[in-house]
Design brief:
Layout lengths: L8 E2 L3 H24 L19 H25 L7 H18 L11 H25 L4 H25 L8 H4 L3 H24 L7 E2 L3
Antiparallel strand pairs: 1-2
Length: about 220
């Protein structure tokens, strides 16, 4: 009796990496659309979380969730490529980044000039956790990546750690320096720069997974 061969199953890092890159592109497009739909008088001083308080709050939440989904795809691709096991520091830190992003989308911040609410505190803690976890994960993954890609990952992760320090001051509810118009520090611009660096880091990690041996190849049936 002849048994028809079943179609091959893609088990390499290629599919989740490609899906991750697509989700990251969606997140970037949604953030860009928010800046067009909701012109901010002082974008250098307005934090991205303020979009959640306006009529397009759902669009902001969608952008953050798309970023989380893309990051999940990158994590899955790195795991399949052997660069980030789930129980290793890199895998755990990337998982923390994804979970913190989901919490950011679920719990909006409060009005900057008002006293901090419990939601604003949760939002700030989630943001701080996310912005610290991703560059730390990048440095952990860097140990398994050589060549120019590894150097680029280290540079982007290091730059993110430099930018995260002033951004955390801007995220702190009730902090005197968090009132950007008073302090004169462009926290909004710094946060946008940090998000751009983080997104670039995720994209580079996805490309690293795509270039791993066996990316997108068929795995034998068990």
């Amino acid at each position: 009796m002849v048994v028809a061969a079943r179609p091959p199953v893609l088990a390499g890092p290629g599919p989740p990496a490609a899906a991750g890159l697509a989700a990251l592109a969606v997140a970037v497009a949604l953030i860009g659309a928010l800046h067009v739909l909701v012109p901010v008088p002082g974008p250098a001083f307005a934090m991205l979380s303020e979009f959640a308080l306006g009529p397009y709050g759902a669009l902001f939440a969608g952008a953050v969730l798309a970023l989380a989904a893309g990051s999940g795809g990158v994590l899955a691709a790195l795991r399949r490529a052997g660069h980030a096991r789930l129980r290793a520091p890199a895998g755990r830190l990337l998982a923390v980044w994804c979970a913190a992003l989901a919490l950011l989308a679920a719990v909006p911040t409060g009005v900057a000039a008002a006293p901090p609410t419990p939601g604003a505190v949760v939002h700030a803690v989630a943001g701080a956790t996310a912005f610290l976890a991703l560059p730390a994960a990048g440095l952990a993954v860097r140990r398994r990546i050589g060549g120019r890609a590894g150097l680029l990952v280290r540079v982007l992760a290091g730059l993110a750690l430099v930018l995260v320090v002033p951004v955390l001051l801007g995220l702190a509810p009730g902090s005197p320096v968090a009132v950007q118009e008073v302090s004169g520090v462009p926290f909004g611009l710094l946060q946008r720069g940090l998000l751009a660096v983080d997104t670039a880091l995720l994209a580079v990690l996805a490309v690293v997974a795509l270039r791993a041996p066996g990316a997108g190849t068929a795995a034998p049936q068990a």
